[in-house]
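pasting for ref
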Amino acid sequence: MPEARIARNIAHLRERIAQAARRAGRTATDITLVAVSKTMPPEIVRQAYDAGIRHFGENYVQDALPKINHTLLQLPDIHWHFIGHLQTNKVRYVVGRFALIHSVDSLRIARALGQRAIQTGQQVPILLEVKIDPAATKFGLDADQVPDIAQQILHIPGVQLRGLMGMAPFHPDPEAARPGFRLLRQLLQQLPPDARQILSMGMSADFEVAIEEGANMIRIGTAIFGPRHSAPEAARSTAGE
């Protein structure tokens, strides 16, 4: 049964998270697991929720909104994360619907989020996306831009900078991700205290290395739901699998 398979996958994943956390002198409770639910129907998302997942990551606004509004997923403790590339014409749809925006990659997007947040009387928690794999994505800030952009974002009303996000280059050896993750951690440490609460890095192929390098939020799709087959999902071009 798919439900049993998803529950088994999550249980196995949590064991691996706990082991990686122990190696880093931490505990599994330090790590927030975000299930990347893009392309998954509400019924499958609900199965993951029933197996203990409370955080779900979506890449595309048009796919996310029907799930967020679905009757099966009207749950008081479910948290939605936006992890895909965000365009300014989609800002009005994400403010108020997502607990965290992982993929802010410009001052323009940050200002648009802040403006919408002020209009609706809200505050929007965000992460800055850092480009640690230039070959895989055209999105994200270059590492040397991060301190200056972060300082400017701190002064944008309606926006709360909470940390950084990045995606390592795809490689069959998870160790290949370590330098990028280490760079991201070093960049986080340069930010003011309130802006270094979250380090979102690590996916199914490399999350253990990410945890060892300081991640406290990981984005896992394949290891929970299995491989995805639809054409838009074939490339690692966004912040989730």
